[in-house]
Design brief:
The chain has 16 helices and four strands. The chain is mainly α and 362 residues long. Strands 2-1-3-4 form a four-stranded parallel beta sheet.
Length: 362
């Protein structure tokens, strides 16, 4: 097990930046701020961006743009379409490859960013529209999973919060008492196995409700297995600390920040007024997410066994990674160490070239 950890640490240090797959309402805002506390660098740590890189267009697509324009916007003609009403809009980015992402990150000296949409790839024709979906292997890929029903409830809560607070004035009565069929038109992805969709690329994410099948969940499991580190939002404190310390080599874990908690947004009374009146049927449709989460529990537990073994052997992520340079201060975990190693290598090469030139002149 100790050797497995050394392999993990060595591989992580070789990757210049982390892509954190932010499945909405799974601790992503807190993760962004925790990255900042750990000294990571990205385009923007502001709450509105949550560590996303603008040029990558990894923004959320919660609400049907068509439904918003035809059903919700007429409530107030002065209300513009919010950026979260983009369901049906595929990724529009000048950066279309993993190599392009790495280059953009390195040119800006960023070593962390969040993707709140889906991995790259996926076909737009044929039954297997998840083909060619892929993670960016040159990047350190990290994912946090949350129990699907809790995630769903938090997501609905936040959507309501966004509309009632940011799209004013909003007629509360318009949304009260609606059933799940109305909600599925309004928010197709959040109401239909959002976690599974988030694993499978543009084409699958934007499928209408009811189109996902068991084969999509099986494909999502294969994508899930490719992540370098898989963390659970519900992990006990000790397990979460191990995951951050050994999995990411971060000194501060997610408990340091708890942002945008749904319990802080809407009261239980307001929640009961607005949720679909047949909420049980909404939960019943999330069987694919439930199966995917069960698989995530197994994968996360396997990771934890490696972290526990490394800890029991007296290993420490910073000590293992620093080697002879134990007096140096690293930031942003393995990615900070990778940057330090590249800088040290460039400096050494420059020193050697200067020495060689001096020897030739002498």
């Amino acid at each position: 097990m100790g050797k497995l950890y050394l392999v993990h640490a060595s591989g992580a240090k070789a990757k210049p930046a982390m892509e954190y797959m932010h499945i909405s309402k799974s601790g992503g805002t807190s993760m962004c701020h925790t990255a900042e506390l750990n000294g990571c660098k990205t385009e923007d740590f502001d709450d509105g961006r949550t560590c996303q890189v603008f040029h990558f267009d990894d923004r959320v697509r919660w609400i049907s743009a068509h439904f918003h324009r035809t059903q919700l916007r007429p409530i107030n003609e002065n209300v513009t379409t919010p950026e979260w009403a983009r369901f049906g809009s595929t990724r529009h980015s000048p950066v279309t490859s993993c190599a392009g992402r790495v280059q953009h990150l390195q040119e800006n000296r960023w070593n962390f960013y969040a993707n709140e949409y889906t991995p790259m790839g996926g076909e737009f024709q044929g039954p297997n529209s998840f083909r060619h979906v892929h993670l960016c292997k040159p990047l350190f890929n990290v994912l946090i999973f949350r129990e699907p029903v809790h995630r769903l409830m938090s997501h609905l809560d936040f959507i309501l919060f966004c509309y009632t607070r940011y799209v004013r004035p909003f007629n509360d009565a318009y949304i009260q008492g609606r059933d799940s069929a109305w909600w599925r038109q309004m928010a197709p992805a959040p109401l239909d196995n959002y976690m599974t969709r988030s694993m499978l690329g543009d084409a699958v994410f934007n499928l209408p409700t009811g189109y996902l099948q068991d084969k999509h969940m099986q494909a999502a499991r294969l994508v899930l297995q490719q992540y370098d580190v898989l963390l659970l939002l519900s992990a006990p404190p000790g397990e979460m600390q191990l995951g951050f310390n050994f999995g990411l080599a971060w000194q501060v874990d997610l408990r340091a920040r708890q942002d945008r908690s749904s319990s802080k947004l809407m009261s239980p009374t307001a929640w009961r007024r607005f949720i679909p009146r047949d909420f049980a049927s909404v939960v019943a449709r999330h069987t694919l997410d439930a199966q995917l989460y069960a698989h995530a529990l197994v994968l996360s537990r396997l990771d934890t066994l490696v972290w526990e073994a490394a800890a029991s052997l007296g290993m420490h992520p910073v000590q293992v990674a620093r080697g002879r340079h134990a007096d140096q201060q690293f930031v942003c975990g393995y990615q900070g160490m990778a940057e330090q190693a590249r800088t040290l290598s460039a400096t050494t090469a420059s020193d050697e070239e200067i020495t060689r030139d001096s020897d030739e002149e002498g």
